[in-house]
Amino acid sequence: MLTFEVKDMTCGHCVSTITKALKAADKDARIEIDLATHRVRVQPAETQADELADAIREAGYTPVAVSQPAVEPAKPATAGGCCGGCR
Ligand SMILES: [Cu+2]
């Protein structure tokens, strides 16, 4: 899943324009758009991230690739007990 932040996507019309542009670039892509956070998530079928970014740009918007947070960040090891001074 690729994520772009498109700050100039501001209404439902923008959403449909971007959806159409992405579908034109990759008709089998899965597209999820969250207008509130200006996020466009795309699961491409046959395109690369830069082609999708180009499609958004050509539609008149400014995509910024957002790197996905990796899986869960590892928990910091919790100290099991106390230091010697607690005894
Ligand atoms: Cu709009």
Largest sheet: 4 strands, antiparallel
Ligand inventory = copper (II) ion
Strand order of the largest sheet: 2-3-1-4
Overall pLDDT level: 88
Number of helices: 2
Helix content: 25-40%
Q: Shape, please?
A: elongated
**In CATH's first tier, which class applies?**
Alpha Beta
General description of the model:
There is one protein chain. By secondary structure, the protein is an alpha+beta fold. It has a single domain, classed as Alpha-Beta Plaits, CATH 3.30.70. Helices cover 28% and strands 22% of the residues. It is built from two helices and four strands, in the order E-H-E-E-H-E. The chain has helices at residues 12-25, 49-58, and strands at 2-6, 30-34, 39-43, 63-66. It has a four-stranded antiparallel sheet with strand order 2-3-1-4, covered by helices on one side. A hairpin with a 4-residue loop joins strand 2 and strand 3 (39-43). Helix 1 (12-25) crosses helix 2 (49-58). It is elongated, with a radius of gyration of 20 Å. The termini are far apart. The mean pLDDT is 88. Copper (II) ion is lined by residues 10-11, 13-14.
